[in-house]
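Lab notebook, bench 4. We co-purified these components, and the gel suggests they stay together. Before we commit to crystallization screens, I want a quick structural picture of the whole thing.
Request: model the full complex, all chains together.
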Amino acid sequence: MAGLAASFGSGAMTNTIGDLEEADLFLVTGSNTTETHPVISTFIKRAVVLQGKKLIVVDPRRIVIARYAERWLRPRPGTDVAWLNGMMHVIVAEGLYNREFVEARTAGFEALQKTLEAYSPAAVEKITGIPAAELAEAARLYARAGRASIVYCMGITQHTTGTDNVKSLANLAMLCGHIGKPGTGVNPLRGQNNVQGACDMGALPDVFSGYQKVADENARKKMAAAWGVGRLPTFAGMKVTEMMPAALAGKLKGLYIIGENPAVSDADLGHVEKSLRRLEFLVVQDIFLTETAKLAHVVFPSACFAEKEGTFSNTERRVQRVRKAVEPPGEARADWKILCDLAARLGRPLAYADERAIFEEIRAVTPSYAGITYARIEEEGLHWPCPNEEHPGTPILHREQFTIGKGVFHAIDYRPPAEEADADYPLFLTTGRVLPQYHTRTMTGQTEGLNELAPESFVEISLEDARALGFDDGCLVRVASRRGSITVRLKVSPNAVQGTVFIPFHYAQAAANRLTNAALDPVCGIPEFKVCAVRLEKAA
Amino acid sequence: MSQQTQTLTIDGKELEFTPGETILEVARRNGIDIPTLCHLKRTAPTGACRMCVVEVQGGRALVASCAMPAAPRMVVATESEKVIEARKLILQLLLASGNHNCLVKGSDGKSYDDYLARLRKAGGNVQPCPAWGGCRLQELAWRYGVTGGRFSPTPPRYPIEDVNPFIVRDFGRCILCGRCVQACNEIQVNQAIHFGYRGAKAKIIAAGDRPYRESDCVFCGECVQACPTGALTEKDARNAARPGETRRVRTTCAYCGVGCQQDLHVKDNRIVKVTGVEGAKPNLGSLCVKGRFGFDFVSSPERLTRPLIREGDSFREASWEEALDLAARRLTAIKEKSGPESLGVLSSARITNEENYVAQKFARAVLETNHIDHCARL
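Here is the predicted assembly.
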């Protein structure tokens, strides 16, 4: 998010899902697309299998989508900046970059060029383990493609260098002019149904809806006037990853959590649980009594997506309708109603007739949503920015110029991950999802069939590592990191590569996040879920 | 119009087409309904079922309109006597090709109760078809006044396969139209199912004729949605409701960020089935295993139904009045004692835009704190 915003001026997917099929080449990295975004993977697979388009996958695991790839490059976990710099080194050295685009539409190329000098494919091979010749060939394929689309996900962002990784992807796209046209772009896939919308609506510490800065006095005045309050707070808001330590330190005393389960999804779980227990008052509003809700002082029952009206904004910035199909159970209420009911008791009533009335207020104060109405999106959603009711929406960003004017190259050097494999903890651990489960299983865990397909946690390991350790497929092992340990079943898999193991983060009983490192990206505050060091032992 | 525009005549209407368009495509674009069975949008036409045959003036045989490109000055009849006779014959053969008991001998009643009564009368342990009322073959048989009596039915050659949590494969009701194979190979590209064996033994198989569970199948259910008969059905929906008994509500999937458009099929305030909305962006009708089958949580008995207030190590149920009052009192007390900087809100990537907007307004204008975030970072 922050990475793309710094490069282009906007942190969202630059192109649309349907537009993917226009690409001649895909670079998929840090996205286990077939398991985490199965329907998007169909667009890529169709283009590759039925239309002969090319696919390059760069991922530490031999994931399913790699089967469809022309090339699968395997970097050591946490070395993304290095291989990206290596690709750009080749592209610049061989004169394959888009000179015209770089000159007309970007700034900062000279500094980038200087930084790239040190990243010859041979030098990069030492850091990443990717054979120099393969990296160079992938670079040429990307640069020479008529239209090339980059698709990435949490495998790029959940690192201490996450922001740097994203900026490097943006560098690569700009260098080759693969942006602002159909079938190109830098496309982050959002993992949850309405992450995009939560950001768009200002559920972030530093911005109101439409990314209007809280630090900007004019924005504050505008929102205060719209909301009929005298003034709005000016102090810097904390990110979730800052709130937890603040709670532990006793500085944050009251917390209101809506529909999230940080007690399973956060890095270094032991720490999160302690933090939440320190709070003087914790309110949780959810559809189930989650691990987090169990720590609350008051729990409010809320309505789920099928029980209310509204909108979600998907990963391609498309605002789409959500409609009520069934009544909520018992006395459960829509989340917005609960907040309004509580606001009235806090002496500052928020009153809306219905969801549409809220959306009308959103339009009035949010320029990028101003042209979107429930009537217009009855049949098909619209992509923001959509500034007025005549505007058709914006499927492709940065066509004529970048949101910030000229695109910004960032000269970035490789920094190793916060923790690397060593003598005590000799294996890299990376985490992620499996197809049949979702997040902390609050929802999927209720469908027997999904549990049948993916019943329990496991540690995925290569045959070589399993043999070296003398473990049989299916045995129980203890996986330990510097922060904690869990016991899980061993799963020998061709997806795994020697030296790196994988654990899905869905399962509270053997929570992968008891092991992960809470070291944060300094800009985004995203924890390094994707790399830490572990060792495996026979379970007691 | 451009110079490339050419015309042909369908059912007496002169219609424009662009080179490469099939007769079927031109007809559909102009509201002429040529019936199809095997034709699946976005995949290469196979011409397997022959249901879409039309008569082309000067041609020696009927042609499959799904595969025949439109040509200049072509004159096409879509419902001529010859065409109708051909379609009737095809339907009669299909009805005799397996267990299509909805139209057993001499009966064309459209009432489900009549159907059940007939099945009981016929004796034996014959199961009613789960697709009754939502079957394309049955619909076409009704349209052309065809019953199942003309040819003697072939008994099903293969047993039902249902050793998986979600999908029942009833080969006796399969008409080998191949839509599922196309859905799997050309739309989802999971390459899990194929045509197997030959002639009368033909069968749709997965991984060398093994159960779905032992193949590359990922249970996206695209094949079920594509199946025109009762050969592929959702296991749970089979008993929960018949086609036509449900109300459809279009919404956006609540799992990942793709935002698939889906129809929730509702009966008695309960979701019994989910399908992708054909042709709607972004998913164009496709779903994944979670979006299609992961809806049980909505009606789970574990859902929270009343506010809870902590008492020691456990909770007690409370009224909204009491719980809201308590929350308001405690939040106010913290704010007065330690200032709004001591309060925070974690909103959610799961809830709607409207709710996220209200949550940030609640944080900033009501609690007066900028400590608001959601778990996108996690």
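The longest helix of chain A spans residues 38-51. Worth comparing against the SEC data before the next meeting. Residues 320 and 381 of chain A are 5 Å apart (CA to CA).
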